[in-house]
Amino acid sequence: MNRPGRRSVLLALGGVALGAAAGCKASASGSDPTAAGAPAVSASPSRAGGQSLVAVPANTSFAFATDVSNRSGSGESAPIDADYWIGQHQVTNAQYQEFLGAAPGRSAPSYWSGGSYPSGKADHPVLYVSAVDAQAYCDWLTGTAGGWKFRLPTEAEWENAARGPQGYSYPWGNEAGSTYAGGKLTSKYNYNAVVSAYYLAKYGSAKATYNNKNSAMYGQSAVLSSILSVSADGGVRGWIDHNTWTGFVYTDLFTELGKTGGYTSAVGAYPAGVSPYGCYDMAGNAFEWTASLITATNGAEAGKQVNAVRGGSWYSTGRSCQTSYRGEGRSGSGAYNTVGFRVAAARA
User: Fold this and answer.
1) What is the predicted pLDDT for the residue at 115?
2) What is the pTM of this model?
3) Which regions of 188-297 does DSSP assign to beta strands (E)?
4) Superfamily of domain 38-175+267-347
């Protein structure tokens, strides 16, 4: 059997249909919105430091949709007193490599080889970078883009940009809109159903072997389609079982996938998933660092003070990709296979 290796994955193939036609990235040409002063949402994106930036107005009445524990009901008030800019796309491998070339001694992400990102993934979000690394990248951009100051967005700024004035559950609206039929998934974002649909289409009849020694099924093999499935509305079964150490995540197929940084897609590859302010991939693809510290309520970090991460990833369930989903965080000094970042900026 041919195992997935070091290559780019084309999401329009292998059982996955993109949410809209090609032509996914918004043009960065046009007038500079800053020329008229405060950011104007209707203006074309501005470019600075190699980043395409979209304008988001101040929102002094902003409140999180939920509290940090993900319970129902409104979250705390977090007024956004100033206009700001935010990256239209997640920072890519190629962009991060340029930074590394100007920062001798700083380590490349662990899934790169010889200081280079995996073939075909120049435009995919960079992963395995800590919040500290991400801020260093922002500081470097500030030094190269005269008149701009870059940083990580706060959690409030991130959610505000993702939800938009309408307060959407997803950047594009209140319904996920994913469907799975005849072995084909249609989705507006890259999450674990996209991964599952691809692997079922390509390797569904192949054997997957459990390779985690904690699993009661360690060393045993099963046909992938007997482990993993996707429902008609894009839900996934058999992804992971933390109690028994089984599911797709604990197989050799998933281990191979992780060697090239996971099942990311090129930034902007889901044009139907664009946010009201013109941001791409604010649901799925890669979690994004924020500058805000929280006490995590989810995952292995629960109970620890960490940097909030938002937006979900290629690994996440659809719920984790909602604009209101909170409580997920990571140590700011750590690096993870599902976490990247986008920049925030203001005129200096």
Assistant:
1) 92
2) 0.88
3) 207-209, 221-223, 229-230, 236-237, 287-295
4) paralog of FGE (formylglycine-generating enzyme) (3.90.1580.10)
